[in-house]
Structure formats: C-alpha cells, structure tokens
Design brief:
With 69 residues, the chain is an alpha+beta fold. The chain is 17% helix and 9% strand. Strands 1-2 form a two-stranded antiparallel ribbon.
Length: 69
Amino acid sequence: MTCKNLCVRLIPCGGKIQNPYQQGLRYCRRCEVYLKCSNIHCPCCGLHLRFTPVDPLAKEKLRLFLKGE
Ligand SMILES: [Zn+2]
Ligand SMILES: [Zn+2]
C-alpha cells in the first residue's frame, strides 16, 4: 500500500511539533508524518507506526517523561 494522503487530516499543528512522542503522536515512515491516532498501523498506508524515537537519548528522555520524572 502507498500513501493515500489520508494522513494529511491527522497531522496536528501543520506538522511542526516539538517532542511529538511525548504528546502521544506516532510516526509513519512511509507517509513521513507524525499522526495523531491510537492505531498500531497507519490508517493511511497500513505501515506499522513508530511510537518511540529512533535516537536512544530521545528514547530515554521519553521513558523518563512517561514515568513522570
Ligand atoms: Zn499517508
Ligand atoms: Zn502511512
């Protein structure tokens, strides 16, 4: 499946987001956008969504944030 541009409707704040994962957003690598949805798969292209950062440091930061530290 490919991007059907359905994701455009799910992008908050025009895509300019600070710490998107801390805001509960998920990233689709195929659509290359952060989506505001709770699906495991992209509702647009069906790709598995990332909900943690790739960068280990950012990942650790997110973990601490979610723990409330
Ligand atoms: Zn898409
Ligand atoms: Zn997608």
